[in-house]
């Protein structure tokens, strides 16, 4: 009889232990579910708060003349008594030329009367000093849609139309010398954009992350020297075009016919005599 009671007692203890374990497991699952629900609720609240904050931002426009500008800040004079400084680090600038003093602009910005700088959202350049003084070839700014073996198709930011250019002789200014679909670029070209029979000829393509680089500030054209004269050099490019250069800082005396050269130039490649300011 004592032996039977011993087994009954053990069975009772085990049953109680198993029940406790089951209760403990259920409690853990309930707690985990509750924690997850709280986390999701908090995330939802944070997302809602961010959306509400964005929605609460008041937007306004201001027209004026640029009096100072660098990579992250721009100050404009709206009238004789009003001068406003903007944070332009993340602003969209609608211009093919860099912002500069004297430019006339329209600025869309978030209003914050307590802030030292207003946050600019978008800048339209109505008059560009750099463009007015520019004597080079036409420039198009846009997003690359397709890159071929010797072509590039660009959607022009100014009219939202697509244009294809030959890149046979283009100077490419990009990291690792690579351009891909989706890149924003500034493209300098010869000819007529949109001419299907004779596509425009890209002579320089610069990606947005290289706009301010030293390489982007110079113009180069590579080819073979086919004729040399007194201070002159005729350069034949890979596509068979010939460009006539005159010394304007460059020195042609060490160059011979048949040499492969890269000429640094100023002005337009459409000119009868192009100013060569250096050689690479």
Characterization of this structure:
- The N and C termini lie far apart (109 Å).
- The strands form three sheets. Strands 1-2-3-6-5 form a five-stranded mixed barrel.
- The N terminus is likely disordered.
- Helix content is 21%, strand content 41%.
- With 280 residues, the chain is an alpha+beta fold.
Quickly list its features.
disordered N terminus; elongated; 280 residues; five-stranded mixed β-barrel; single chain; 2 helices; 41% strand; alpha+beta; five-stranded mixed beta barrel
Show the helix and strand layout.
Layout: H1 2-56, E1 59-69, E2 73-77, E3 83-87, E4 92-94, E5 104-110, E6 118-127, H2 129-133, E7 139-147, E8 151-156, E9 162-166, E10 171-173, E11 184-190, E12 200-207, E13 219-229, E14 232-236, E15 242-247, E16 260-266, E17 274-279
Parallel strand pairs: 3-6, 4-6, 9-12, 10-12, 15-17
Antiparallel strand pairs: 1-2, 1-5, 2-3, 5-6, 7-8, 7-11, 8-9, 11-12, 13-14, 13-16, 14-15, 16-17
